[in-house]
Amino acid sequence: MSFLDKFKGLKGKAQDAVDQHGDKISQGIDKAAKLADEKTQGKYSEKIDTAQQKSKEALEKLDGKQDGDLR
Hints:
Elements lengths: L2 H37 L5 H19 L8
Helix pairs in contact: 1-2
Pfam families: MT0933_antitox
Organism: Nocardioides aestuarii
Protein name: Antitoxin
């Protein structure tokens, strides 16, 4: 089994996980961003918001449906 075959298999598993638990993953991203913002006392709010947004965009891409249900 080649590297690409293994990668495709992992991507498929990730997509299945996002399909089943995307809302919980999204909530986890929100909680992590909130905690990081609190711990840094808002010093890096802009960077945290950007990371949160990029994470959710990546999650939506893995969802494969592009239906916006994870935001």
